[in-house]
Design brief:
The chain is built from ten helices and two strands, in the order ααααααααααββ. By secondary structure, the chain is mainly α. It folds into two domains: 100 residues, Helix Hairpins (Orthogonal Bundle), CATH 1.10.287; 92 residues, no CATH class. A two-stranded antiparallel sheet has the order 1-2. α4 runs antiparallel to α10 and α8 packs across α10. The termini are far apart.
Length: 271
Amino acid sequence: MAETALKADPPNQEQLKVDAGQRRAAADLKLPDKIHCWPYLVRAEFIAGCIMTIGLLVWSLVVDAPLEEPANPSKTPNPSKAPWYFLGLQEMLVYFDPWIAGVVLPGLIIAGLMVIPYVDINPNGNGYYTFRERPFAVSTFLFGFLVLWVGFIVLGVFFRGPGWNLFWPWEYWDPHKVVPMTNRDLPYLLGARGEAATFLIGMAAVGGWFAVGPLVWVWKRKKPFMQKLGLTRYTIVSFLYLCMLGTVVKIVLRLVFGVKYVWVWPNVFNI
């Protein structure tokens, strides 16, 4: 009698997936909420660092560096540009005096990054990335980094040509291009001609801008968010925000209306 081989029905693949998912979910319930930095995080960072190093090594061996000819002290390049990572600061020199563009603004950036842990009262997003729970904070960082930092670097690399004039990427960089200097100070546009009037109008403009912070506090101080934030933290946050937005306003005034300075104090400072 020949044996008949009974073939079992093939297992249901979908049910196998469901069972495996249920087993993983049950195992996850037994895992602790927190894990040690070593070896889990450090190991992943080390592997990522090795991959990045290998990638940069292969790139440097395959692609030649775009080096120019040796420096010639008798021939200054036009335009004379800083390294790409400093072109954002060099671009700021178009709109601000050196003491603001090279000292004050970078100092505010560093100070702002340092105080974030002390003024941030929103616990959401700690340990994970989320935009829905922190749209304002994430949007502020993206605006400050992508627009005010990376955007100025791109502007300095691709749009600034001879004489530090603006060129479209498809335009010829004409070293003989002449742009008329039509920049004027804000008090002059408002009719001020004397030094005293110029100083007072500029002081009123800058003071009025930074007075927005205290006015908003008086208006919204009874809101739960303001009560939780507190006066000290609100003062720091509002000052940093007004400085960042003031930088944008100053740039727009320069590019659109040809305003060079808002507050002028001859032989002392210009803002």
